[in-house]
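Table 4 source record.
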Amino acid sequence: MLGLPCLIVSAYLLLNGGAMLFRCAQGQYAAVEGTCTEVEKTTVRKRIKAFYLSTEKGTWKIPVRRKIRGVAADVDITVYMSSKARVFEQGGIFIVTGYYAVDVKTKR
């Protein structure tokens, strides 16, 4: 009885993972590198809501969907996203709607 839902979820994850691997192998992704200038946090739990990247092309706002550690001001960050990802401009800031991964380069 529990086997069918697990099989469906497994098939879904394999198909999405394979599609993402195929896109990355074909080079259909973009990497945005920059320095974090500001971090927005929630009021009560102090979780990261969004962070701002300063790049050569301008300022990017990256909303955070999962828990990310090490994000602070003056840290180098790389955001990997689909080349077809939706990016909106609002008040001179580019807002990203989705991304594959975030790489935080901590200074040692």
